[in-house]
Amino acid sequence: CHGSPVTKQRRFPTKFMFGAATSAYQIEGAWDVDGKGESIWDRMTHMSPGFIEDKSNGDIAADSYHNYKRDVQMLREMSLDTYRFSISWPRILPTGMPNDINPAGIAFYKNFINELLKYKITPMVTLYHWDLPQKLQELGGFANPLISDWFADYARIVFQNFGDRVKHFITFNEPRETCIVSNMFSSFNGSAGPEPFNKSTNIVNYLCAKHLAVANAKAYHIYDKEFRATQKGQCGITVSVDWYGAHTNSPEDKNAAELKRQGEWGIFANPIFSTDGGFPKELSDRIAKKSAQQGYTKSRLPEFTEEEKALVKGSADFLGVNHYTGFLVSATVNKLENHVPSLADDIDVGLIVPQEWPKSGADWLTLTPNSLYNILHQLKAKYNNPVFYITENGWPTTAEFNLNDDDRITYYRAALENVLDALDDGVNLKGYMAWSLMDNFEWLGGYTQRFGLYYIDFQDPARTRIPKKSAFVYKHIVNNRYLDHTYQPESMTMTID
Ligand code: PNW
Asked: Could you report the predicted ipTM of this complex, rounded to two decimals?
């Protein structure tokens, strides 16, 4: 070969879907307006404000219930193809049950979806993003196996009402956070957690993992049998996947890292996406052994019956991945001192975060080199390359007013470079959604952690949205389908192209 090598400019495919994501409780506000029922997050923040960093709640949040047209305008400003948002179960079914449908709730989402479609923005709808109807929690929530029927009934109502215009449904956002972390976050281990969340971590967590998998499967099969032929859409699930690498090359550390992966995401993805179905074998063996040592007559991890296994296997059209960060895993260093039965104790490994990984405004999140590429690579190999969407990815800053969010820009550029690498590798990745469209109620962090591409002052009654620098950079990437690492916006004035 002669001549100077020409490096081909890598581009995102024209059909690749770029978007942004939010969830109902974090943005909508209007917590008791127009017939909405109470959710567990309404109850918890009202009853136990001390558990929230700034003692705030989502009563008003970004007030998207009243500002949804402005939200759509922001999506248009950034030229985004898609918007991932969630439906509040108690807004459309105030008691959680299908006998009582709130017409104002249905109307709100219809108007909102129509507004998106008017501007050719593809809605991607999450059915459950943690705001369980309080009435269902009082019946045991995810500890009760009937949750799968309650969820299936709710899902049918969502498909019936919105499936003519929504072609991408996500049953659950992050089973790990629903069952393990937010039941409630692991530091509440034992009895110290806030009402009304379930408390016993060692049993409830695993019941939830199973019941949620069955709930997803029932909803999926309803979509498949009753709606797919006419609506022609897809129904998937979103799992949170951090990257876990081995701390050293020792076989012990490599095994520890693999076991950690199975405990963090295999437990939720394996029953649906593996060829064998069921929980990951090594993990269930481990939990059975630990349970026996602890004197239980049965494993704390409830196995699926053969019938359930078959129902759950293959019950998703795509794997949505929320990815933020990574850790190194050790079989010997930083191990737990507290041996209260729990998933963490069952796995029993140590985590290490190297000093040189840049820190964010949240203690759990660092910029971990190549983590997004690494997890896609692992998931592709493990589950035979299903259709993927990155349904969340983002970087938190602190609450102070700063529109020049260069650290967020660095994070997004690194992540999108990983997306291009994954596409080069043949990963079946169809889209990428930034978390989040705007600053919002960050759960236990309240309004102290900001993930938005748009800034919001939560003291301002109008909840004015102001684009951060990252919004301009993201828009430039989306418009050009090209990752320019040096681009700087000329001004901070947004327009719609
Ligand atoms: C996701 N972790 O939650 C949620 O889906 C969003 O609602 C949330 O706002 C966003 O990430 C940012 O936190 C996670 O500790 C919460 O690893 C915690 C973890 C991961 C995801």
From this structure: 0.95
